[in-house]
Input
Amino acid sequence: MAVGEGWQLLKIRGIPLRIHPTWFVILFVATMAFEQHYRLSLAGQASPGLLWAVALVTAVMLFVSVLLHELGHSLVALAHGVQVRSITLFLLGGVASVERECSTAMGALLVAAAGPAVSFVLAIVLLALGHPASHLSPVLGEMVNQLGALNLVLALFNLLPGLPLDGGLIVKALVWQFTGSQRRGLEVANACGRLLAYFAIFMGSLLLLRGGGLAGAWLLLLGWFGLGAARNQHQLLKVQQALKEIKVKDVAQRRFRVVEASTTLRQLSRLRLEDAPSRADAPDGDGLLSGQQSQAAQATSGAGVPLNGALPAAGSELSDWILVCDRGRWRGVIDDGPLRELPVQRWDSEQVGDHLRPLNSLASINEAAPLWQAALQLEHNPRLLVLSPAGLPCGTVERAELGDSVLRRLGLRLPAPLLATARRQNGYPLGLALGQIAKGMVGTGDVGSTSVPGPQQAGQDAGSAGESGTSR
Output
């Protein structure tokens, strides 16, 4: 179960509040620690049962403070037009999951500073109330002072200048503001976070060797978490760089066949059977589908890709497109509709040129476009037609190719079966969310354009088909 998951308790301003199972571990540990503290500081002033009750209330109120801290981030993010998916309490505190970062440096700065600001306000109020509360009850006064001190520590700790802490986000926003480069800000903040993580691991190890026990283990855990976050940020930077630098032409395949407009529907049926022999029903004597067999086989073979942009069902494999040219000029594309709709007796007299759709009904992208643009379009289309600078079809691109090229840039070569599985499922290998990463790049202004190029006009009425006049 990921940090962003858990049991939903309620919604605050439309933001789901979730509890991760690991939260109960830290609640138990915190309750034990508070009970030990109160037993020493309130010796003889309260019964053991009351001490345990106050310890539990203190632990719960501490996490209420953490929740208010995260709400501070979330409400400011909402004010800047950033959708907050959830707030989750887990082992190391709390985390707010947002759909993207703010698109401006000052907006990101305000969102990052909001959480510590809430903790500072809570600390000031609680510490101010500590003395009056102690007059009402020594136990109450001790609890209020303890919560005030913990909120102060929470604010100061989160202001440490390294990712993933709020201080690291503030550093990133400040560097972004002064340099104009969000990427530079992320690199500086990530480096600071890595140094803080190593320092925490060193201090935790030192405390453990000197009998520090729980404090040493806690620092080690924080350091390990910080290193993991720094590593993830570094990988994200490399993925973003790959999406900007790699061009569509570098990853394009050729998942289409080309036929002449004079091709008969019976010949088209043969071609479809060649594409999917294992999925079609058995052909008749001359290698053709006939009657109801044809309708069933064509409906279940997977031969044919929706031309309206709809995504295929999960686990269904995309078959090759059939593009049509007429004496060297592109004319359009044909799907399996005519084979399904027309009786088999008409297949010899009907030609594919009579049942064409325009090429621009296929989502397309220029071969010189960067991969981030392709990733955005593949969020809504199963495949893209790649166009040459002259607007002529020269290839196709799918999610599997994008994911494989990015992973290769990261130094990871996928085994052939794993890549084949991703292609068969029309998904990114290893669960890469390249579309979401591309959306984040657009939202923060990391790439030059904030709009996705629409389908380009394929040169179907002018220009030679050239080498594309033969099948793949």
About this structure: Residues 277-315, 450-457, 459-464, 466-472 have pLDDT under 50 and may be disordered. DSSP finds 14 helices and ten strands in the chain. The beta strands are 7-12, 15-19, 84-90, 93-98, 256-260, 321-326, 329-334, 364-366, 384-387, 393-397. The two ends are 44 Å apart (CA to CA).
